[in-house]
Structures are given as structure tokens and as C-alpha cells.
Amino acid sequence: MQDMNLTGLFIDLMGRLGLNYEFLATGYEAQIWRDGFITTLYLVAVTIPVSLIVGLIFAACLTSGRLWLSAPVRGFVELTRNTPTLVQLMFSFLVLNTVVSNMVGGAQNNPLSPFFWVVAVVGLHVAALHAEAIRGGIEAVPSSMIEAARGMGFSQFEILRYVQIPLAFRSSLPAIVNGLISLVKSTTVGNAIAVSEITYASIMVWTQRDNVVEMMIVLLAFFSLINFVVARVGSWVERRLAIPGYGL
Amino acid sequence: MTASTDAAIVKLEDVHLSFGQTQVLKGIDLTINKGDAVSIIGPSGSGKSTILRCINALVTPQSGKITVAGTRVDQLTKESERIQLRKRVGIVFQQYNLFPHLTVLDNIVLAPIKILGADKTATVKLARELLEKVRLSEKADAYPGQLSGGQQQRVAIARALAMKPELVLFDEVTSALDPETVGEVLWVIRDLIRDGMTSILVTHEMRFAEEISDTVVFTENGRIVDHGSPQQIFHSTNNPRIRQFVGGLSGGGRGAVRDGEGI
């Protein structure tokens, strides 16, 4: 009851400013809109770790010195860096998803949702960007330090795990944070395949209500807020990992 | 040096190695007994450091026999076998190469714990003892970037010792240091040799080599020109090239002062 009053008060107040938020008083549209926020946050929360883990694996492959690992990843990185995410998503959903559906005997058996394809496409796209940044950091580790680790009996993987990646992650962190900010924005491509994230939900509302400006204000504020948090967390991690007496 | 005995811990026989077109080692024969301190001296590019890298299986020669602590290094075919050998042979480099993102203590315990699978508590205890030995106990929680070159190099030595190696190779470990800190590193090595650690040093510190070595080896152009006691090599050699080299280096007073510098 209290909540209803608050909503009513808000709608009234905004109405006086000439902003139309009347849809908030309805059940259906308000619900879609609220779910949109949650879906976007959910997308961001799932895609960020996917991009980081895959980015690390890609970087490891690129610097492995083994052609059968580096060549396919190099190909994928080039393809994904140089083509629009929207096109990649369309291709994945309309072509790959259809192939999967045919393989499992019909769309009703296909476990892969549009949500999955957004996570996969955006996650791998940003992973390619991370991979390039981390690769640069891995290759920047002096060869004499790698030789010293080899001399102590480290295997190639152990050098990567204990020496190269900890150093590369630190040096590539600013680039990684940029990649994550771009990731947050890229989750909006989901609206192209009807994932009801916040832009999709907002479009649903404004096509009915003709309140584009009102919805835009909230959209812009929402994404600004998420990326503000991402950037702050990024610089916090950077400070936490800073090495005393070292240039990173 | 020439006789092959059971005491031999390192034995190189007619070792040839080239990088591409460049012949680096042109038939190296060298025997080192357990507990010995051997210095390898000679001009830059004579193959000194490459000899150490052969012993540690960091490079593989094209031909010749290398036996290290009972292992035929030249016959190792898999990287995993070479890794097993490297765990038993410590090596310290010119550039210290501490891991900059780890504290001094973590630098020392990383390999024993993660690579050898040693017990964590025991390793930390050993690391603190080693830090005491190299006189850096108070720096356990410092990062390498906060230490001087000499301090970093002493940590690097402690790090090598934490693996409990059967022998330690020192590759020009004082060459990157400023003159004031050379003494503190040499002091640590001298101590180690007195404790009976088999040590092979590539060095330009002639006075030091003379003082601590059981045997001095002179290399030039990929070959061992001569070897013998420090007295022989530094004072009674008939070889004019060695005389010129030794005289040219020690005559300048370099190294004379720093041996006496304690900490």
C-alpha cells in the first residue's frame, strides 16, 4: 500500500515536470520493465566472468608457441575483432542455433536460449579483446625471468600460471576494464533476438506509451551506473594488486 | 680433474654445441667432484655461460656426453625429464630475476611448494633460515622492487638453495651489481662453498675466484684452454693468453677492495 502511494507520488511529480511515467502504475508494462533491469544485470554478471576466463585461455593459446593452439584462436580473434557484434549475434542465432536445432531434432529440443547466445557472442567477442591485452602482458615478461623459472624446474604451464599471468593480468588490467565497460554496453544487442533486457523492455514500453525521452533518461542513467561500478571495482583491483617498488 | 672417479658430480665429455651457424662449444671436457668449487673464467663469448646451461639442461648440445649427479643429461629426450634434473641443480643468474609480484619469502617458497610439492610449514621455516643465512631476515615481507641489486641477488641465492640442490651454478652473479654491493653477494657464496656446496661459478671476479676455487678453468673461443689450481692459473701459467687476461683484469684493482667488504 505504502509502495503504491510512493509510485503514485512519483508519477504525479514527474507528470508536473512533463515526464510521462504512467506505465509504472500498470501491472504488465511495469513488470516487463523491472524484469528488463534484472535481465541486463544478470547478463552482465554472467558475461563478465565468461569473457575473463575465455580471454585468459585464448591468451594462453596465443602465446603457447604451439601452432595447433594459436592458429585457430588467432583466426577467431581476428574475425571477432573485425566484425560487428550484432552481425555475429545474428549469425549465431539464425545459423548456428538452427544447425543445433536440426541436430537435436527440432527447436523444441534445443536447450540453447537467446540468452545463451548473447552471453556466448558478447562474452567471446570481449574475450578476444582481453586475449590481445593479456597476450601483450605475457610477452612483456622478460625472457631472462622465464629462463630463471625454467632453471628452477618450472614447466611451461607453471611459468604461465605462476609468473606470466600474474604479471600480465596486472599490466593489462586497464585494457581489461575498458573491455568490460564495452561488454556492459554490448549486452544491449540482445534486443535484436528478443532477449528482454532493459533496452528491449524500454522499447516495448515506449512503443505503447510514446515516452521515449522518459525511458531514455532511465536507460542512460542505468548504464552509466553499472559502468561507474565496473570502473571503480577495476581501479580497486588495480590498487590491490599494485606491486610495491615495481612499475605496475 | 682428468680422472673419472665416483666422486664426480658433473662430467662433460667432448661437448659440442652451436646456435644456428655459430659454434659456441667446440669440444668441452670437464670433470667436477662433489664438494668442489670451480670457477670458469675467460673472455666474453667464450662459452662460459653456455657450459652452465648445458649442465642444467637449459640447452642441449649437438654432441658429447654430459653426466650430472648420475643422470645422462645429453640422453634426456623429454622436457619432463629435463625438469626433473633442473629441480636438483640450482642456478643463479646475472639479472637475479626474482618474481616482482611476490614478496621475498614467497619468492623463496614458491618453487619448493608448488613445483616440488614440499610441505608448506617446513618450507617457510627453511626459507626463514636461508634468509638469515644471507642476512636478509628483516626483508622477508619486502618486494623485490624495494631491494637493492645486492639484496635481490642474495634472495635469488636463497631461492635456489630452498630447492635443496645437489649443486649450484652461478652465472656472473655479480656482473650487474654496483661495486658496493658485490662484496655482500660474494660473502654469501663464500659461506656456501665453505659449507661444502658443490659450486660452479662463471665469474669476472678474479680475486674471488682465486680465493675460493679448488679449480679454475680458463675458456676461450668455445674450448677449455687450461685448468688447474688457482695458483697455477693465476700465477704460474706458461700460457701467454691467460697471463694477459688475468693480468689485464686484476691489474686494474677491480675486485680487490670488495672481497673485504662485509655486511
TrEMBL record, chain A:
<keyword id="KW-0029">Amino-acid transport</keyword>
<keyword id="KW-0812">Transmembrane</keyword>
<dbReference type="InterPro" id="IPR000515">
    <property type="entry name" value="MetI-like"/>
</dbReference>
<feature type="transmembrane region" description="Helical">
    <location>
        <begin position="212"/>
        <end position="231"/>
    </location>
</feature>
<dbReference type="GO" id="GO:0006865">
    <property type="term" value="P:amino acid transport"/>
</dbReference>
<dbReference type="GO" id="GO:0043190">
    <property type="term" value="C:ATP-binding cassette (ABC) transporter complex"/>
</dbReference>
<comment type="similarity">
    <text>Belongs to the binding-protein-dependent transport system permease family. HisMQ subfamily.</text>
</comment>
<dbReference type="InterPro" id="IPR010065">
    <property type="entry name" value="AA_ABC_transptr_permease_3TM"/>
</dbReference>
<keyword id="KW-0813">Transport</keyword>
<keyword id="KW-0472">Membrane</keyword>
<feature type="transmembrane region" description="Helical">
    <location>
        <begin position="41"/>
        <end position="65"/>
    </location>
</feature>
<dbReference type="GO" id="GO:0022857">
    <property type="term" value="F:transmembrane transporter activity"/>
</dbReference>
<feature type="transmembrane region" description="Helical">
    <location>
        <begin position="86"/>
        <end position="104"/>
    </location>
</feature>
<dbReference type="InterPro" id="IPR035906">
    <property type="entry name" value="MetI-like_sf"/>
</dbReference>
<feature type="transmembrane region" description="Helical">
    <location>
        <begin position="116"/>
        <end position="138"/>
    </location>
</feature>
<keyword id="KW-1133">Transmembrane helix</keyword>
<feature type="domain" description="ABC transmembrane type-1">
    <location>
        <begin position="37"/>
        <end position="231"/>
    </location>
</feature>
<keyword id="KW-1003">Cell membrane</keyword>
<protein>
    <submittedName>
        <fullName>ABC transporter permease subunit</fullName>
    </submittedName>
</protein>
<dbReference type="Pfam" id="PF00528">
    <property type="entry name" value="BPD_transp_1"/>
</dbReference>
<dbReference type="InterPro" id="IPR043429">
    <property type="entry name" value="ArtM/GltK/GlnP/TcyL/YhdX-like"/>
</dbReference>
UniProtKB/TrEMBL annotation, chain B:
<dbReference type="GO" id="GO:0016887">
    <property type="term" value="F:ATP hydrolysis activity"/>
</dbReference>
<dbReference type="GO" id="GO:0005524">
    <property type="term" value="F:ATP binding"/>
</dbReference>
<dbReference type="GO" id="GO:0015424">
    <property type="term" value="F:ABC-type amino acid transporter activity"/>
</dbReference>
<dbReference type="InterPro" id="IPR050086">
    <property type="entry name" value="MetN_ABC_transporter-like"/>
</dbReference>
<dbReference type="InterPro" id="IPR017871">
    <property type="entry name" value="ABC_transporter-like_CS"/>
</dbReference>
<dbReference type="InterPro" id="IPR030679">
    <property type="entry name" value="ABC_ATPase_HisP-typ"/>
</dbReference>
<protein>
    <submittedName>
        <fullName>ATP-binding cassette domain-containing protein</fullName>
    </submittedName>
</protein>
<feature type="domain" description="ABC transporter">
    <location>
        <begin position="10"/>
        <end position="246"/>
    </location>
</feature>
<dbReference type="GO" id="GO:0005886">
    <property type="term" value="C:plasma membrane"/>
</dbReference>
<keyword id="KW-0472">Membrane</keyword>
<dbReference type="InterPro" id="IPR003593">
    <property type="entry name" value="AAA+_ATPase"/>
</dbReference>
<keyword id="KW-0029">Amino-acid transport</keyword>
<dbReference type="InterPro" id="IPR003439">
    <property type="entry name" value="ABC_transporter-like_ATP-bd"/>
</dbReference>
<dbReference type="Pfam" id="PF00005">
    <property type="entry name" value="ABC_tran"/>
</dbReference>
<keyword id="KW-0547">Nucleotide-binding</keyword>
<keyword id="KW-0813">Transport</keyword>
<keyword id="KW-1003">Cell membrane</keyword>
<keyword id="KW-0067">ATP-binding</keyword>
<dbReference type="InterPro" id="IPR027417">
    <property type="entry name" value="P-loop_NTPase"/>
</dbReference>
<comment type="similarity">
    <text>Belongs to the ABC transporter superfamily.</text>
</comment>
